[in-house]
Amino acid sequence: xxxxxxxxxxxxxxxxxxxxxxxxxxxxxxxxxxxxxxxxxxxxxxxxxxxxxxxxxxxxxxxxxxxxxxxxxxxxxxxxxxxxxxxxxxxxxxxxxxxxxxxxxxxxxxxxxxxxxxxxxxxxxxxxxxxxxxxxxxxxxxxxxxxxxxxxxxxxxxxxxxxxxxxxxxxxxxxxxxxxxxxxxxxxxxxxxxxxxxxxxxxxxxxxxxxxxxxxxxxxxxxxxxxxxxxxxxxxxxxxxxxxxxxxxxxxxxxxxx
Length: 258
What we know:
By secondary structure, the chain is an alpha+beta fold.
């Protein structure tokens, strides 16, 4: 008997084939939805990048204004801040990072300004310069200084982040609350709830190297979207090839003797 549309429909009603078809439709829908989601993430990322760049290029605001913004809605990320005060350079907190492929540390020190204590990220040092004595030849601000930097909210850890080691002054994520707990009692009560990352040229000396804030965020959402859409098309191709192979196989006549 030759292959007919009616026979194909009947074959398609078999439970095994029906399960395969439903699974293919569900998987295809999931793959397409993931691709669409990545395109939506791409639009969100572009808006975020534009917002960050606009804030980083805007005139610096006084610390009091940024503190008020934090109390209102905590939307202070990448706002430029200008403050005048004294850097407590003798107290350093070291936060692990990788800069241009080089492992090292962000050097954070308290900055006294207008009755507040701000944790100032002074910049990056490579591992050999982690010890302040290894860079004792570098100038350190003394007395009243003005510093401009970008406000950054405290960090968060995830399941792959190592545990911080306060007793060894080795921090692997920006746990501001725990860092503030290392300050004298009076300073703890006056501590700002966010970091300030010093802009390039804000502080003297080569090390720590300031101005290392990453303003360009990774944006691979388009390639991810194309990957999901490509997988969806591949799935359709495999399913179509299977249908064609069944149709051809079903149309073959068994050989007769004589």
